[in-house]
Every structure is written in C-alpha cells, then in structure tokens.
C-alpha cells in the first residue's frame, strides 16, 4: 500500500494561503498575552502603562483581529480533517487508526506547549474537539450542517443572554487582580524556572482549564463547517463554486459592518447595554469574529482564483505550508524576548506589533529557505512520520525509508 502523505504537487495552494494569512493574524492576537499578564489585567486588556496609541491598537485588534483568526484555523482544521480521511480512504489505509495517531501527537505537543511555554495554546483544544469529528465523517451532509448550526446558535444565544444581564460591580476584584499583575511581571521577568512554573500552575492553569469545555464547544461548529466545505469541494475546486463563494462574501460583509461598527461605539460609551462595557465589547468582538472569518476566507478564495493573486500570495502559502512549526516558533521567539531582555509587562502594544511584523517577515524568509531544501517543515515532518508510522522523505534528494 502507498503510505506516503500528500505530495507537493497534490497540495491545495489556496489552503496554504489561508493558513499563512491566519498565522499572521494569530501572532498579532497572541502578542499581548506573550508580553503581558493579560489574564489578570482589567477587561480592556491594555498594559499597566499604556498610551493613546496603545488604545488605538487595542481597538483596531478588537475590530479586525481578535477572534477573527482562531476561527479561520478552526475552519481549516475541519477541512483538513476531511482531506486527510478522504485521501487515506482512497488509498485503502486504516484511516481511523492513522487519524487517532495524528490527533494524539497534536494533543501531546499542545500539552507540552501549554505546560512549559504558554498558557494560550490552542493545539490541545483542537485535538480534543478533533476526536469528536470522527463521529461525523460518515454522517450525511444535512446532519453535519444541522449539528454545526445548532452548536453555533446555542452558544451565541448564551452570549446574547450574557449581554442582557446587568453588570454587578461587586464581582470585580481589581485590587486582587492588580496584585497578580505585579506578581506575574516579577515572576516572568526575574523569577527562577521553578517560581515561573509554580505561578503558572497556581494562577494560570485553573483559569484556562475551567474554560476548556467552552473552548471545545466554540471550535467544534467551525470544524464542522470546514469539514462540509471540503466535502463539497469548495476549497479544492474554487472555480466550480465561485457564485456560492461570492454570496458568502457579500453576506458576511453586510453582517460584519454593524457588528464591527458596534465595537468603537461601545468603547466610547456612545451605546450602553445592560452588561458591563467590557462584557459587551467581548460579545461583539466574538460575533464579528465569526462574520469576518467568513469574509476573510471567501475573500482569499476569490482572489486565489486569479493567477496574478496566486503569485502575490506565494509568501503566505510558504508560511502556511509550515503552519505547525511556525505557530510554535512564534511562542519560542516571544518567550525568549520577554525572558532574556526582561521586558515582560513593559512593552507597548505598538512596539509589540512591530515585533510581530519583523517576526512574520523572518518566518517568510525561514520557511522559503527551509522548503527549498526540504519537503516539509521540521515539526510537520515528525507529525507525518508518527501519523503514517513510516519515515517519509524530508530532504528533497532523499528516498523514502521505513522506520526501523
């Protein structure tokens, strides 16, 4: 049996472009959490010392970046699930066993990332939700979509109820949060490794783990939408579905305008809802994340249908081909910066944004150099070897060798 993974010629260019685009957004979203104790900051998420420019950056992120890119990755995960299972089935391979190994590797890497580097890891959440996807592979398209819409609508109705609940000032403990902010900055800047881990286990892990079920529920319907889109061939055969993609583009654009527009109005206090201002902003950031996710994906699919744009997006595609490696590399670089230069809690959002731009440009250069010599990124290669239980070729001049 042919157990080799997808070849370079079989890759779907637009899928790599969307992955690369999502990676750029992800580093922008994650940057504040890399450099500041966002878990314990006031709800606005601004650094302790911030400027008007930082407030503008935060507002821009809320309007066009925050929650807009993990949704894209979630959609792509569902699409990737279908493509993986379908190709394995065509080759008469044990697809469920292979997918189980694939998800187990993802979960293991995600847990290591979460425990030893950064609390904001999404890989382990994807792995947990990814196991549930197996229940839907044989389901009819109508059933999958019904579940996707049901889960999405139920969760958003919960957000609507939260939006209508009046704020309770007594629940806010700003003094306690301020103490944790200072403790986090001290530990992340000057603490020993054991102090760092103790703080994370005591204060960060409980918050993340308590929200884990909600995180799984959030990404699962997006997985199902991505799975459905790939099953229908919308991503693989974009040219055959241009009219449907254009409808999604127009619909998501029209829906995004009022949702995004509400964010600065709430921030400025020109519109006041029963919930606290920070809660209201968070809800509309989440809602606009769903509509802009569809807008961004449909925009890229339409542009990639034109040859000139395919060439212009080649840098994004290169980064997207090494999405696993580049995602973790972003964490390593920012942890290195915050620890070695002792800048945790002191970097402005403006400076952090410039660091993101430089880092992403470096990832484009690194990915281009690496893929000119190797078929896969380093972590992608390990992931494939463990998934297929076979030593797949890495160097472009090497032949396939079985694992000993």
List keywords for this structure.
single chain; 404 residues; mainly alpha; globular; transmembrane helix; Bact_Transport_Assoc
Question: Gyration radius, to the nearest Å?
Answer: 22 Å
Query: What level of helicity do the residues show?
Result: over 70%
| Global shape | globular
Counting structural domains, the number is 1
Number of beta-strand segments = 0
Strand percentage lies at under 5%
Number of helices: 16
Distance between the termini: 18 Å
SS content category: mainly alpha
Which blocks of ≥5 consecutive residues have pLDDT under 50? 400-404
What is the H-and-E element order? HHHHHHHHHHHHHHHH
Q: Please state the average pLDDT score.
A: 91
**Major pleated sheet:** none
Describe the structure in your own words.
The structure is a single chain. By secondary structure, the chain is mostly helical. The chain has one domain. It has 16 helices and no strands. α1 packs across α3, α1 packs across α13 and α4 packs antiparallel against α5. The longest helix is centred in the C-terminal third of the chain and has 28 residues. The radius of gyration is 22 Å and the shape is globular. It starts with 12 loop residues before the first helix and ends in a 16-residue tail after the last helix. The C terminus is likely disordered. This is DUF418 domain-containing protein. Pfam families: DUF418. InterPro entries: Bact_Transport_Assoc (IPR052529), DUF418 (IPR007349). It comes from Brevibacillus invocatus. Keywords: Membrane, Transmembrane, Transmembrane helix.
